[in-house]
Amino acid sequence: MLICALPCYLARMSKGSIERTLLASAAALFVLGGVFTRAQQGHGPAVLVALRWAAVLALCVFAARRKTLTPWIFVAMVAGAEIGFDAPAFAVGLRVFSDIFLRLIKTIVAPLILATLVTGIAGHGDLKQVGRMGIKSLIYFEILTTLALVIGLAAINISKAGVGLALPAAAGATETLTRVAPTHWDDFLLHVFPENLAKSIAEGQILQVAVFAVLFGIALATLSESKRAPVLRLTESLSEVMFKFTNVVMYFAPIGVGAAMAFTVGHMGLGVLVNLGKLLLTLYGALFAYALLVMLPVALLARLPVKSFLLAVAEPATIAFATATSEAALPRAMEAMEAYGVPRRIVSFVIPAGYSFNLDGSTLYLALASIFVAQAAGIRMGWGQQLLMMGTLILTSKGVAGVPRATLVVLLATASTFHLPTEPIFVILGIDALMDMARTTVNVVGNCLASAVVARWEGEFRSERPSLVVVDGMAE
């Protein structure tokens, strides 16, 4: 009776009231379904499952009324988690849809960065400003990643999440992990420069593509106008096409995101938090503290409209959280920041550079995980040793976006340098997917913030109108 009466009740309400009612109804249904399911020590009877799916349906109605893509992505996350909980075997099979979404996104990233960087540098014409912007970006990156390391170090020393951990006796685990060679500074430096552009694009090496684009853009900027103009028009057209291509691919985002969440919950289960919940809560708490104590003050000092910034980054952050892949959110993040008011030439320079030098979430995680390994092994490290370890991570963490299995490589390199065992790293890998969701989200939001801060620093924030293609894409 209540369900039948609900449409009539909603019809007499204003749009805002309807949306608030839908959200409140969904929350209430989830609470009821969740509490009684917990009491049943399992999935509960069919009526409880129906309550939770009624909540999902209410969220679908809410998303349909909003008529934008972001609510649908959020609904897909919730629905995916519910599918993973109710039908884990079926949910694991949905991974193919998230893989399709990631493949489509990966086809966008390299051409988009190449086109926008070349256009931004060659079309700008002022190479001195490009160099100045690069120096400012690197200073900003260094300060914020250092603060991220400090917060991660403080969080793990307060929670002591690794103390008393029973190490697993997994045969062959240590040998498997130690086969991954540590990455030294000269390896990373060599890895920065491309040997073949096609190979760099095929392998998704963002930093190498960005380096090529910067050098190509500088070379193009030094040519005469008659020789520069045709190539510049080509790159400008390519960047517009890639943004439009992004808009088309984003229609598949809810399916890809929902499938990613379904696979994660179905494969690992909601009970994954039981064994290593303390470590997980420490990471999430530290990332929240970083957002509150570092990112928010930076936004306020830069006089950025915080509310509109949060609205702008909501969609790329949601994609990053669900897929745990920074690449998946990069095209939409660039669009969102241009629509927010950051000129494209700054967006195309700062965000790709930040993907290699400003991964705040990953650097915070590395600080936390390194000390966790020492705590789990029963090794007492003084503050001097911990600070030395942080100094090492300040250098080694800069390449985490340019190396396959980068976070693991850097963590193993740190463990090897400071003579720590690798068994606790095997423990961390058990919940790494859930940790990766949070740190990837902070990585993406941090780079979006960096682009806005640099634009304000350069006095060009909201100095020009964004492309109509970008505006149309963000309005969908």
Describe the protein's topology.
Blueprint: H1 2-11, H2 15-39, H3 46-66, H4 69-86, H5 88-92, H6 95-124, H7 127-159, H8 173-178, H9 185-192, H10 197-202, H11 206-221, H12 225-249, H13 253-268, H14 273-301, H15 306-323, H16 326-340, H17 344-357, H18 360-376, H19 383-396, H20 406-417, H21 423-429, H22 432-457, H23 468-475
Helix pairs in contact: 2-3, 3-4, 4-13, 4-15, 6-11, 6-12, 6-13, 6-16, 6-17, 7-14, 7-17, 7-18, 7-19, 7-22, 12-23, 14-18, 14-22, 15-16, 15-22, 16-17, 16-22, 16-23, 17-22, 18-19, 18-20, 18-21, 18-22
Describe this structure in words.
There is one protein chain. The protein has helices spanning 2-11, 15-39, 46-66, 69-86, 88-92, 95-124, 127-159, 173-178, 185-192, 197-202, 206-221, 225-249, 253-268, 273-301, 306-323, 326-340, 344-357, 360-376, 383-396, 406-417, 423-429, 432-457, 468-475. With 476 residues, the chain is mainly alpha-helical. The chain has two domains: 2-94, no CATH class; 96-475, Proton glutamate symport protein, CATH 1.10.3860.10.
- CATH homologous superfamily (4th level) name of the largest domain: Sodium:dicarboxylate symporter
Q: Determine the structural class based on helices, strands and strand pairing.
A: mainly alpha
Ranges where pLDDT stays below 50 over 5 or more residues in a row are 1-14, 168-181, 271-275
Task: Please provide the ordered H/E string of secondary-structure elements.
Answer: HHHHHHHHHHHHHHHHHHHHHHH
- How many distinct beta strands? 0
CATH fold assignment of the largest domain: Proton glutamate symport protein
Mean of pLDDT: 76
Q: Tell me what portion of residues adopts beta-strand conformation.
A: under 5%
CATH-level-2 architecture of the largest domain: Orthogonal Bundle
| Beginning-to-end CA distance, first to last residue | 36 Å
The total tally of domains equals 2
Task: Kindly provide the name of the CATH class of the largest domain.
Answer: Mainly Alpha
How helical, in percent, are the residues?
Answer: over 70%
